[in-house]
Amino acid sequence: xxxxxxxxxxxxxxxxxxPMATSEADCERIVDAAEGAGVLLAVCHVLRYTPYxxxxxxxxxxxxxxxxxxxxxxxxxxxxxxxxxxxxxxxxREDTSTFMLMxxxxxxxxxxxxxxxxxxxxxxxxxxxxxxxxxxxxVGAADRCLDCAVEASCPYSAPRIYLPSLKEPDRVWPLSxxxxxxxxxxxxxxxxxxxxxxxxxxxxxxxxxxxxxxxEYRGGVTASFTMTAFTPSDFRRxxxxxxxxxxxxxxxxxxxxxxxxxxxEVIEVESGAGxxxxxxxxxxxxxxxxxxxxxxxxxxxxxxxxxFGGALLSSVACRANWGNRSRTATTAMTAMAAMTPWxxxxxxxxxxxxxxxxxxxxxxxxxVRRLPR
Length: 373
What we know:
Blueprint: H1 2-9, E1 14-16, H2 24-37, E2 41-43, H3 51-61, E3 68-76, H4 79-87, H5 100-116, E4 120-128, H6 158-162, H7 175-178, H8 184-193, E5 210-217, E6 222-228, E7 237-242, E8 245-249, E9 253-258, E10 264-269, H9 284-297, H10 309-323, E11 326-328, H11 330-337, E12 366-371
Parallel strand pairs: 1-2, 3-6
Antiparallel strand pairs: 3-7, 4-5, 4-11, 5-6, 7-8, 8-9, 9-10, 10-12
Helix pairs in contact: 1-2, 5-10
Family: Belongs to the Gfo/Idh/MocA family.
GO molecular function: nucleotide binding
Protein name: Dehydrogenase
């Protein structure tokens, strides 16, 4: 938070990695600093900028399925990604990093609100740490995988996760985090001595491994978001339910079901590199195009409210989960709603400044085919 505030006061435009901060108060401090200095502020919510997201947003906004009633969205973190980053890795503890929804899913919560295009009014959330704790430790398990009698049958085995990466020379992550020596000897040494060789049932992790968030938007539109470790590492999956049709999407293709004629249409979209939940998100080209455009223009017509909405909404949902009860989003969302493109003449907090554009772009293209009825 401090570097962003300091740079804003020096007159620099800000393009911040997510999360822009780990608390609502710090988010607001950054926004206040940008507003006071008259500089542009944007958050790298790149999911908005993929060809897939642009196409999906255009279908929804264009009324292709009538009025949107509800949305269902899944982030499949992946069993090995959870073990690597959120059990053994840098994001395993809330007190040294942040909570899971902020670290992994503020992109998704921002994306949902961007897709629906309405402010959130109520949030409830449930989840917890189910698997990666001492009570779930198998009989005979050791503190390290290389010493473990049951390692061969464990899906979270460090050698099983990291050694196959040696056969993929173009794949840098996650091995680059584990060891600087890209060899079998290097991986085994790191597994023997470093944090990434620890038993997943004997770590000091405390972030959740599954969480469900229910959201109610203005006008009664609802959405559900599920983040879970217990999947393959795969593309996010979304279903949008409307009054005249429904949409299913997985980051690579969009299937539109028409309730009037009973037909379906598949729109295949080039996802580009890094669009899965473990690799990244894609959309980098679109993000830079937008940021370059608005810095040259000096302002944006985009809705400022959603720029730090992902961070605030993640925080509200996390607090709802702590209490295992429904929470209104009044505190965070009132702060967001108070901001408009006119209240920040030269500063925007949204990375969705331009209108979403379907069709071809640098990141990929679109191909449409009609399914038989």
